[in-house]
Amino acid sequence: MRILMLLSRFPYPLEKGDKLRAFNQLKTLSTKHEVYLCCFHEGKVTPEMMEPLKPYCRGIKVIELKKKHIVFNLVRSFMSGLPFQVGYFYSWGAQAMVNAMLVKHKPDAIYCQLIRTAEYARRDNTPIKVLDYMDAFSKNIERRIRVAPFYLRPLLRIEHRRLLRYEHEVAPDFQSLSVISAQDRDFLPLTNKTAVHIVPNGVDTTYFSPRASKPSYDLLFTGNLSYPPNVACAELLAREVMPILLRKRPGTSLLIAGASPAKRVLDLQGKGVAVKGWTDDIRDYYAAAAVFCAPMTIGSGMQNKILEAMSMQLPCVTSSLVNNAIGASDGKEVLLADTVETTVDKILQLLDDKELSARIAKAGQSFVRQRFAWSSVAPVFLNLFRK
Q1: How far apart are CA 117 and CA 122, in angstroms?
Q2: Global confidence as pTM
Q3: Which residues contact 153 (CB under 8 A, 6 or more apart)?
Q4: What residues have CB less than 8 Å from 60, skipping those under 6 apart?
Q5: What is the CATH number assigned to the segment(s) 2-202+374-385?
Q6: pLDDT digits (tens, 9 = 90+) for 111-152
Q7: Main-chain phi, psi angles of 349, to 5 degrees
Q8: Are 36 and 4 in contact (CB under 8 A)?
């Protein structure tokens, strides 16, 4: 089968969750099908970025997103009623390029990752069309309204209403629908939610495996550090959790690490808190910590960071919001905390009780290997393309 894969981002390097998901799904598809990749990118794609994709693609088309075009796209989406998440990536010129690929390659199936790319395929007559919502964007925006600056809230409310409408309206245009977790499926504004397949993220459990090294930091939080839910979590840890920890356990250290740190994150560096940017090997950060801590209060989807940390046998403290998408057992495979006080208590339990820490770490690793290895996720994903 020939498959055209439409992505809103060039899927390399793997510093964002949607890129990681897309890259591994691309690898999975290429084991059974011919894949032609079409993706958007701001700026130039270097040969070094292109090289890791070549073994899995019969053809690659990159559509450059230029700032002047983005501004025009957003203005047009505001006037037309499209969500900004969709309008940001949609243009008539790009539609012509996608149409040209459809004519040239005559795919048997189109795969759209995220509603950001759905507009390019929803009216096409290709026999099989698959839309991966991945996250419930509408719920993500709804959660961000309450913590956003007052001047952004009117725009976010508009975006929330438009996303609810678009997520509902686009569904009938695709033969198969998928989402990352049962939690996100429940948040989608669809009449028949049971028709949406749950395709979780997976982890390369061989790559993300334990290292025998002495931790340099007590705590670690990683992620795309310009993504608002991650920024909010970093601020929570540095400004609210760490001051209490330092009073109760002087010398406690926190590493906040990841791609594209926002200024708000860089400003968190100080007593007991270190901030570091992108690294070619994220495992170095996991191996440098004793406990992984991600008590996120906003966001949606599945947090790859938790799965990777657990796979590397790092004991984790996280929130119910994060764990609802994963389903780990509190007190056995993770420790859950939904307030600053309980977050501090759970961290101290793991730092001060080595036996408990080791038990949680081993159980967490076993849980991820059984439930979230890419080898077990792949068949579920491939099943979306059956006629």
Answers
A1: 9
A2: 0.88
A3: 145
A4: 36, 37, 38, 39, 50, 53, 54
A5: 3.40.50.2000
A6: 999 999 999 999 999 999 999 999 999 999 999 998 899 999
A7: -60, -45
A8: yes
